[in-house]
Amino acid sequence: MPTRALYAAEPIASHTVPWSYEHAATQTITRPATLADYDAVNQLHDRSSLASRFARYQSARRDLRFAEWSHLTNADRATSWVSHPRHSPQDVVATMNLVRTTDSSTAELGLLIEDGWQGRGLGTALAAQARAAARNLGCSCLVVVTGVDNVRMLKIMRGLGATPARTGGTTLAFSLPVA
Known about the structure:
There is one protein chain. The chain is an alpha+beta fold. The chain has helices at 38-47, 50-57, 66-72, 122-136, 151-159, and strands at residues 21-23, 28-32, 78-85, 94-100, 106-113, 141-147, 163-166, 171-177. Helices cover 27% and strands 27% of the residues. Strand 4 (94-100) and strand 5 (106-113) form a beta hairpin. It is globular. Residues 1-16 have low confidence and may be disordered.
């Protein structure tokens, strides 16, 4: 199931956010995603556990359709990044997406990190970079919708000072100011 922002009406920006970032602690590089990353991102989905994919999508997704990836890499609607080990650029171990919601000042954040790369600080670093990127895109708020049992995302959001609001019996929505 796509995130609620996946098909939002408002363009995210008229430009891309070109930053690349090296995470010293995990020895990974995060760079802007392109259409060419589609297969590597779906390989990431294949290697990720059902629990990790469910935490990201609140469903048992196995992969992304090409049209969805095209949307997530279309600078007019969303901006996405992939992370890979420093010496293995073909091995995507994480993806991060910012998608404009129906409120043009808000972007929804989505993270998927391969199981073996979780618990190393990569998610926290990516969320902090997403916050900076959202600011550069003119957004004043990031939204994260996650399951009440997604302990890692809950820790990341609370660490960044976000407070949750319950959206349903099993989900929480975090609103994270970026200014």
